[in-house]
Design goal:
A 9-stranded mixed β-sheet has the order 1-2-4-3-5-6-7-8-9, sandwiched between helices. The chain contains 12 helices and 9 strands. Helix 2 packs across helix 3 and helix 5 packs across helix 7. Helices cover about 40% and strands about 15% of the residues. The chain has one domain: Alpha/Beta hydrolase fold, catalytic domain (Rossmann fold, 3-Layer(aba) Sandwich). The protein is α/β, with parallel strands linked by helices.
Length: about 300
C-alpha cells in the first residue's frame, strides 16, 4: 500500500488510503493509540474496507510520521488528522479512535464538527478532571517497565492489553500482537511523549458539545482504561450509545475482530441513528444473557 504524507506545521504525517476508488462508500478515519502505527488496525481493516474507504493515520512519533522535538498535546495530534483529511481531499468522514486515538477523535468532534460524520470511541476516557484513573495494574506495569528487557516489556504490555479470558482461550493473539509491535518498534521517546499528552488530556466536559452520532465501545475486562469511563462518555455525549463487550480487554478488535467490525459497520451505516442514549451488549451476548447484564452493571458502577 502506498504511504502518503500530509504537512502538519513542520511535521510530515504519514497516512494511507484504502479503497479510495469506491467513491460510493463513505470515508472512515482510523486513529490508533499509544505506540501503535496504522497496522494496529490490521485485524479489522479487511472487513471494514468492504463498506468504507479507509484513511489510516500514523500518529506523530509512530510509524513513518515525524516526532516534534518538544512536548505536544492531544489537540495537536487531532490537528494532524485534520491535515491528513485536507491533504487527502476528504471533507467529511466517519471517525474511529482507540485509547489515545479516542481522545483525539473527541477533540476532532468538538473542534471540527463539520469534518466528523459518525463517531466511534473505543476503550478511551473523557479526560481530566472528570474521569476514572488508570487501573492500578497498569500503573504498576508502567513503573516496572524500565527494569524489563525490550522483549519482556512487549509481551507484558501485550498481555495487559488483552483479557485473562482471551489469553487463556486464544494465546496466539498475544503472539500476533507482540509480532506486530516487534516488527514496527516505536521510538521510546515518541511513546513517552504520546503518553504524556494522554496523561495531560483534559476534556473538561467539552464532550457535551459533540453533535456527531456516537458509539462508545468498552470491554469489561479493560485494565488499561477503567471500564467505567465508557459509561461516563456515553452519558456525556448527547444521544450516544454504549456497546459493552463482556470479558474483553483494552484492544477489543484484536480479541473479537468479527464482532467488533460488525458492530461498527452496523452503527455507522444505520441512517436512522437510533437517537437517544442506549446501552447494549456486544454481538453474541443476548440482552437477557446474565453475562451481558452483569457487565453492564459493572460498567455503571463507580
Amino acid at each position: 500500500m502506498r504511504t502518503r504524507y500530509a504537512r502538519s506545521g513542520e511535521l510530515r504525517i504519514a497516512y494511507e488510503l484504502r479503497g479510495r476508488l469506491h467513491w460510493q462508500r463513505p470515508w472512515l478515519v482510523l486513529i490508533q493509540g499509544l505506540g501503535f502505527d496504522r497496522h494496529g488496525w490490521d485485524p479489522v481493516t479487511r472487513k471494514l474496507r468492504r463498506h468504507f474507504r479507509l484513511v489510516l493515520v500514523d500518529n506523530r512519533g509512530s510509524g513513518l510520521s515525524d516526532l516534534p522535538a518538544g512536548s505536544f498535546a492531544v489537540a495537536d495530534m487531532a490537528r494532524d488528522v485534520v491535515a491528513v483529511l485536507d491533504d487527502a481531499g476528504v471533507r467529511r468522514a466517519h471517525t474511529m479512535g482507540v485509547s489515545l486515538g479516542g481522545m483525539m477523535a473527541q477533540e476532532l468532534a468538538v473542534d471540527y464538527p463539520d469534518r466528523v460524520d459518525g463517531l466511534v470511541l473505543v476503550s478511551t476516557m473523557p479526560g481530566w478532571p472528570f474521569a476514572f484513573s488508570m487501573p492500578a495494574v497498569s500503573v504498576r506495569l508502567l513503573a516496572a517497565t524500565r527494569s524489563m528487557t525490550r522483549e519482556a516489556a512487549l509481551r507484558r504490555h501485550a498481555e495487559n492489553a488483552l483479557s485473562a479470558h482471551t489469553i487463556e482461550r486464544q494465546p496466539e493473539v498475544v503472539d500476533r500482537l507482540v509480532d506486530v509491535q516487534r516488527s514496527r518498534q516505536a521510538d521510546l521517546g515518541a511513546v513517552s511523549a504520546q503518553a504524556a499528552a494522554g496523561a495531560r488530556y483534559a476534556g473538561r466536559l467539552r464532550q457535551q458539545r459533540i453533535r456527531a452520532r456516537t458509539l462508545v465501545v468498552q470491554g469489561t475486562a479493560d485494565t488499561v482504561v477503567d471500564p467505567a469511563n465508557g459509561k461516563l462518555l456515553a452519558d456525556r455525549i448527547p444521544g450516544a450509545r454504549l456497546l459493552i463487550f463482556p470479558d474483553l480487554g483494552h484492544l477489543l478488535f484484536w480479541q473479537d475482530p468479527d464482532g467488533f467490525a460488525t458492530a461498527v459497520i452496523s452503527f455507522l451505516l444505520d441512517a436512522d441513528g437510533n437517537e437517544g442514549s442506549q446501552s447494549t451488549a456486544a454481538p453474541g451476548a443476548r440482552p437477557g444473557d446474565s453475562r451481558a447484564s452483569a457487565a453492564y452493571h459493572r460498567v455503571r458502577a463507580p
